[in-house]
DNA sequence: GAACGTACCTAATAGCTTTAGGCAAATTCC
DNA sequence: GGAATTTGCCTAAAGCTATTAGGTACGTTC
């Protein structure tokens, strides 16, 4: 019999594709085995278990997102950087809904520490350097931006804005305008 | 044999409690049957299937949230209303994490139409009446507020702000200050 | 007290997860 | 090049969840 050439990496990548096709929740070890035309038990030499698979897909998604964000930020500052960064999240969620869901998957502390989460936070801080905030306001703003981006993208992809006017794109643009204005005139206590 | 007295309502309520205890994802027809000390098949006279159970828990959570929000808004306006409303979401998520997750569960169009989703949107608009926005800006602001509240609460309960200073409570207060300031000085295009 | 409806049960099928142990292909070593 | 070893994928099996079909006995109604 010809070997399938399974590796943890190929499995995780295929798992990410599967997530985009059928949804992250539907990613199962069984479905992945079917995709490689291999028996289920064979995957357990490469993956600890089902949770391990999902964690690795989450880590992959976080890395991909951070890479895209880093590209988008290169050479930009101020509102330009803010917009480019925000669009990375929104576009990624649209192109890769399963991966985006994976990126929001709760990670245990070790996985979280090894994740690209820190890069995301650092990039957000880099954007805020274009505005005039100092600690602890910068941290509050980091949290606000994370909340808005995640919240908007998640509500939008759940269909929340689909059946009402105006267009979601218009709201997105205006929300980014508003955030820019807010960061320029951040209220001091 | 003594009958257990199952009804759809009791099952859904128990399912909501179960969600808060073990997480919404772990809510299964089997676990619910165990909780009533009844065979699994018995539940299928009261629930269509597992998805039906989860949908009903989601609808329950949305109603509870809307009820709390309506109470909180009574007699308030302006920033006072904004803060009270926002705290309803945050407090509910802390007290009832499983139900809160359920409330964010994707609903099919019929379920969504029958849900308290419309009440939530109307209440958000009521708050914005305390600020000077007119369409389409009011809708953009509705979407922004929904995004921030959902995003913040979801990142916070995923532990996102747990291991860094300053305290999440402080950021929450400052984020609400910032939103209030933003709504009072909403940028026109 | 008989007849009926219904609440819960047994039984069975099917899918996903995970572990244990086996064979054969690939790799290493002489 | 062939033997020894490693390792990749397999079969088998047990346990859990979901769901359906059909049966029994409880509670209600007349």
TrEMBL record, chains A, B:
The keyword Oxidoreductase does not apply. Keywords: DNA-binding, Transcription, Transcription regulation. The keyword Nucleotide-binding does not apply. PROSITE patterns: HTH_TETR_2. Residues 28-47 bind DNA. SUPFAM superfamilies: Homeodomain-like, Tetracyclin repressor-like, C-terminal domain. This is TetR/AcrR family transcriptional regulator.
């Amino acid at each position: 019999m010809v070997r399938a050439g399974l590796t943890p990496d190929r499995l995780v990548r295929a798992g990410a594709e599967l997530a985009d096709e059928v949804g992250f929740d539907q990613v199962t070890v069984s479905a992945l085995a079917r995709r490689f035309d291999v028996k289920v038990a064979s995957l357990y030499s490469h993956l600890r278990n089902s949770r391990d698979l999902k964690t690795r897909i989450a880590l992959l998604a976080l890395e991909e997102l951070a890479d895209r964000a880093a590209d988008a930020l290169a050479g930009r500052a101020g509102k330009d950087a803010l917009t480019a960064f925000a669009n990375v999240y929104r576009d990624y969620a649209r192109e890769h809904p399963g991966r985006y869901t994976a990126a929001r998957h709760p990670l245990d502390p070790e996985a979280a520490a090894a994740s690209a989460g820190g890069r995301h936070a650092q990039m957000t801080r880099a954007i805020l350097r274009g505005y005039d905030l100092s600690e602890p306001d910068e941290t509050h703003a980091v949290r606000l931006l994370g909340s808005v981006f995640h919240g908007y993208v998640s509500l939008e992809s759940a269909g929340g804005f689909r059946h009402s006017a105006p267009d979601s794109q218009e709201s997105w643009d205006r929300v980014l305008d508003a955030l820019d204005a807010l960061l320029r005139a951040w209220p001091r206590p």
